[in-house]
Amino acid sequence: MNSGKVSDLVRKYYAAYESKDRKVVEGLLSDEFRFTSPYDDHIDRATYFRRCWPNSENIRAFHIEKLFENDGEAMVHYELEPKSGDPFRNTEHFRLDGNKITSIEVFFGSLPKGGSSAQPQSLSADEGNQKYLCLVYQEDGKLDALSQRELDTLVAECVVWVDELEKSGRHIYSAGLQSVRSATTLRKRNGQLSMTDGPFAETKEHLGGFTLLCARDLNEAIQLASRLPAARLGSVEVRPVLESIADLADPIDRKIVAALRRNNREAMQPRHPATSRAAAHN
Asked: What architecture is domain 130-240?
C-alpha cells in the first residue's frame, strides 16, 4: 500500500464520524470487518453498526495526536471531544487490505480531564451481581416549566447515560412513568379494597422513572447514579435489591429473606430472569 494512503483512509474514517456520514464508513469497512474493544469481542460489521454507530451522535470531534502507519496497519492516539461529558483519550489499531479497513481494536487510553473514566470498566458476572434500583423523583412543576428544546436536551442526556451503562454491562432495565396525574393508589384493609386517584402521598416530589442496574457495591452504584442528568430536576434514590445472597443488616430484610429461602427463591423474580430480560429489550 502506498505510503500515506493508510493514514488518509484512517483520517477519512474519523471525519465521517464527525460529520455523521454513515455511508462513508460503510464504504471504508470490508465485509469481513471485525471490531474489538473492552466492551466488544471481535464483533462483526452488522453488530458494529448496530452497537457502535449510534454513539456518533455524541461525538463532536476527534483530535488526532499521533498516527503511525506501517504496511497496511496504523496506530492512532487521539482525544475525543464529546458533545456532553469530558474529553478523553483512546488508542486504536487499524488493519487494512487495499482501500478497506478489515479490523479496528480499541485500547482505552487516559482518563477524561474531569478525573474519572468516561465509561466504567465492564463488569464480570461475579463482580457485578449486586442489583440496585435508582428511583428518580421529580419536583412538581419543574418538567412543565421546561421548553420543548430544554426537555429534548434532558432526555437526550439521559439516553446517553443509559447507553453508557449498557456498554459497560451494568444496565438491566430503565423506564419512565406517566404523569403522576395518571396514578391510582390501592389500599386493602380488612378484606375491603379502596382506590383513590393520585399518588400514595401528597409531596413536592413524585416518582417519575427508574433504572435497575448492577454494580460492585453501593459506592459504585451511587457514583453511577450521580451521573444521571435527571437528578438536576429532582432526586435519585439508590436502594439495593433485596436478594437472599446479599449481606443484610436490617432485621426486617433478614426476616423477608428467610421467608424467600423457605420458598426456594433468591429474590422475588421469575425463575428464568434471562428470558425476561431478553423480552424486555425486544
From this structure: 2-Layer Sandwich (3.30)
- Is 3.40.50.300 the CATH classification of the domain at 5-108? no
Length of the chain in residues, anyone? 282
Q: Give 212-223 pLDDT, tens digit per residue.
A: 988 888 878 888
Least confident among 46-60, 115-129, 183-197 = 115-129
Q: So what's the pLDDT on residue 12?
A: 96
Instruction: Check: CB of residue 162 under 8 Å from CB of residue 174.
Output: yes
CA distances from 220 to 27, 35, 36, 212 (A): 41, 28, 26, 14
Residues 6+ apart with CB under 8 A from 17: 25, 56, 59, 62
The domain spans of the chain are: 5-108, 130-240, 242-282
Query: In the chain, how long is the greatest CA-to-CA distance?
Result: 84
Side-chain half-sphere CA neighbours of 203 within 13 A: 10
Q: Are 121 and 168 in contact (CB under 8 A)?
A: yes
Provide long-range contacts, Cβ within 8 A and 24+ apart, for 178-183.
Answer: 180/206, 180/207, 180/208
**Other beta carbons within 10 Å of 46:** 9
**pLDDT given at position 115:** 42
Q: How many CB atoms lie within 10 A of CB 131?
A: 20
> Cβ contacts of residue 265 below 8 Å, gap of 6+?
244
Do 101 and 33 contact (CB within 8 A), yes or no? yes
The answer to whether residues 208 and 162 touch, using CB atoms and an 8 Å cutoff, is no
Residue 53 pLDDT > 80, yes or no? yes
Q: State in Å, rounded, how far the first CA of the chain is from the last one.
A: 44
pTM of the model: 0.51
Rounded to whole angstroms, the Cα distance separating 18 from 25 reads: 11
Q: Cell for 81?
A: 471531544
